[in-house]
Recover the amino acids of this structure.
């Protein structure tokens, strides 16, 4: 399988500190890589470097072979790099369907066709409904997004992402703030994405269930990247967590 995302010697320095140091790995087509590491290990910074929120101090990021290291986040998104954020990014006063339709319309470029009312774009609506179906929110489509439970908002964010048809999906702690009862349903939705995924996640049971490989960050460096069972058995990884349960 071909490499979709490749990170080479990626670094980010701030105030003399090396927040991310020489991180290299690649992600294959349809591979699911979970990123773990203690608080402050540099996981979110790594995602910010990949998505372009931060500019790398050194190294490179390539998407489908193209060097995107110096590109702005919007340009990377147009190339197919989709990301969710730890904070919710849903328009609370719009309906669930409208939130997803807007994302689909933006992807299709119909917001630029001013002579055509965006709400007549049947293609964007069909894409939106399909994405809502995929995440299990089809029956909530007419409701105002602000009325959704936290777990359903997370599903909506995934539907918004799917509507843009991303090549690679970066998920930063998708389970954050969810009650234990909501975790299995969202895990199933994430599994069904069937895309190339890079996900920061603290729930070990979730990532052991979903990940093909687990990348371990520690003090800004990539300590290990391997199959979940080998990571769990790795003494260096265990030491990095200073006895915290993995
Ligand atoms: N703009 C910045 N300037 C200086 N230091 C920063 C900046 N952003 C992050 N850091 C520091 O870099 C380190 C890594 O932060 P980061 O948020 O990437 O870690 P993380 O692994 O995502 O942690 P968590 O699991 O707590 O979200 C932290 O020590 C943080 O304080």
């Amino acid at each position: 399988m071909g490499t979709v995302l490749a990170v080479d010697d990626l670094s980010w320095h701030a105030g003399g500190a090396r927040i991310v140091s020489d991180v290299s790995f690649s992600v294959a087509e349809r591979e699911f890589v979970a990123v773990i590491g203690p608080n402050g290990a540099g996981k979110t910074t790594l995602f910010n470097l990949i998505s372009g929120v931060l500019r790398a101090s050194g190294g490179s990021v390539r998407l489908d072979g193209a060097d995107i290291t110096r590109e702005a986040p919007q340009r990377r998104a147009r190339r197919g790099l989709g990301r969710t954020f730890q904070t919710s990014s849903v328009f609370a006063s719009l309906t669930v369907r409208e939130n997803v339709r807007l994302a689909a319309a933006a992807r299709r470029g119909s917001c630029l066709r001013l002579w055509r009312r965006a709400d007549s774009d049947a293609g964007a609506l069909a894409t939106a409904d399909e994405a809502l179906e995929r995440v299990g929110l089809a029956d909530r489509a007419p409701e105002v997004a602000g009325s959704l439970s936290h777990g359903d908002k997370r599903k909506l964010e995934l539907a918004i992402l799917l509507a843009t048809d991303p090549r690679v999906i970066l998920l930063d702690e998708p389970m954050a703030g969810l009650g234990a009862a909501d975790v299995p349903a969202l895990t199933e939705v994430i599994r069904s994405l069937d895309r190339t995924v890079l996900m920061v996640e603290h729930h070990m049971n979730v990532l052991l269930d979903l990940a093909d490989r687990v990348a371990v960050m520690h003090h800004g460096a990539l300590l290990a990247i391997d199959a979940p069972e080998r990571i769990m058995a790795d003494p260096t990884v265990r030491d990095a967590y200073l006895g915290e349960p993995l």
The two ends are 30 Å apart (CA to CA). The chain has two domains: 1-80+167-246, 90-165.
